Amino acid sequence: MLPQTNRSVRTVRRSRIAAACFIGCLASQSAIAQDSESSLRRSIAWQVALETVGFTPGLIDGNPGRKTKIATWEFQRVKGLPKTGELDKATAEALKVDPDGSLILYTVESADLKEIEPVPHSWVAKSKKNLLGYSDLEEALAEKCHCTRGLLQRLNPNKKLSNLKPGDKYIGPAIANSARLPQAAQLEVNLNDKIIRVIDRDKQLAGLFHCSIAASKAKLPSGNAKVEFIATDPEYTFDPKMWPEVTEKITSKLTIPPGPRNPVGRCWIQLTLPGVGMHGSPNPEMIGKTGSHGCFRLTNWDALRLAKMVGAGTPVKFVDTPSEAAQRNP
What is the pTM of this model? Predict the structure, then answer.
């Protein structure tokens, strides 16, 4: 079962305002520029729609690539549509892709500034902080909009986003909160695809999340496990034995404070495997590109969403055979 969404009247109005402002800005541009921006809005709408139904495209960047196409292919399979991985008419209708409502006008809030706390490079210095926060406001706003910093800059070309103040406006992807999320009967972690699939009680695919896996094949799990517990905004125990690449002289374990740039991000889903879990990330733009130390790393918002779909005892199965979706979208 796919999750249902509920976007408030206020959000819809903001969407219309933003769309109108965005289109208005294009009026004085060339026809080529307008075609380019129209394509951008369509691409953003495609990625937003996939995230809304729980088939995440990775970060929203307005440039649909492999992650977006795999998510689309799987959505098409579940819906009984032709499996192309592309946004054809039938898929766009099933996803309710809305280019005119893909962007909204946000207002910077005081809360957006509360977690701006640049992270020091030293692990010892990190352990002495109360919070590991965002480097600047632009980074905080990009995470709020589930998008890349590059996309946010493109949507706001005449703004220095890091210098905005409470009450200032900016344009971003129209992220919708899911009103109801399906519960997982099982998680399937495909080590080859670098994807966590949520299987519901009817044995149907109900969600899909891209992840990073262990860089070392020796640390990749196999067989089965279960979810043991879930912790949000967790502290992190830095063990120098687990970080051989760190050159800083540290002889004992350190407690690293919580925050969006904590090594495990906003959420930790402990599995019944020693030291192994599914968790958020301090570097969302690197998901799927770099290896972890043995865990499964997601964006913070995907980790938090996944945490709402599982509970203690949820079975987890590890597979390493490439899925058809991945093979069709290399």
Answer: 0.89
